[in-house]
């Protein structure tokens, strides 16, 4: 069958991954380059072009009908530009235009990395079968995306559902985004570790002061480490409950490095959610770990490309979709 694949790019501050993905979400071909994140913009773009070029050498490439990009943000899908915080050489960089050229003219769909993870979880992961979902990544930052009415809802610029920058503490610490008390400022891995150290937690003999080390200490019963995770869980619960109240989601899926802490995070999160999600239409909200793992960005970018094609087909056929 021709045109039965899509290409996908997952662009972050550490790596640029690419893949050819079939209509069932199976990755058939991979390519990857390190992200030269501190170099000038054209150097970063050459790494992207190298990934696309490697994919294009595959015998599967002629079957690709579109290309999806999940990029660190902010992104602006309406303009086709990206300004990743962790790639300073890209500010309003015309990524879509450049990738269209590099791919030989394939239609390109751009979304933020949080939205990409959401698309992956809805297609292949824990949000599968749910029409209304919030999916989050809790790692060095906190991002997210929404599925509403059974469809990915990226918003006009591709950033809808960015729960990390909902303020949950009006007098809280300043956030790099310019606001105060954001979910990310409390619940990201580095901020969990920062708070634990500030409050008196001491790393072990190896000097590891990461969130994973704090999680290990919390599991072993350290009260300061446990309190830092409980504070993070409270911030996440407040943000999830606010989102659920606003748009009536049925499930919140949480992935990323901090989610690998397991019940150190999820037990206090579910407990705190009962305190915030109090209205009748949000009390049944389910919170669960993500399932798609390290390929989530690629799978989600592929899903976005496929979904864009379906939306365009609906318009051409005179239907609106649901």
TrEMBL record:
Q: Which InterPro entries match?
A: ATPase_NBD (IPR043129), ROK (IPR000600), ROK_cs (IPR049874)
In the record, the note on similarity to other proteins reads: Belongs to the ROK (NagC/XylR) family.
The entry's protein name is ROK family protein
Per the UniProt record, the source organism is: Streptomyces cavernicola
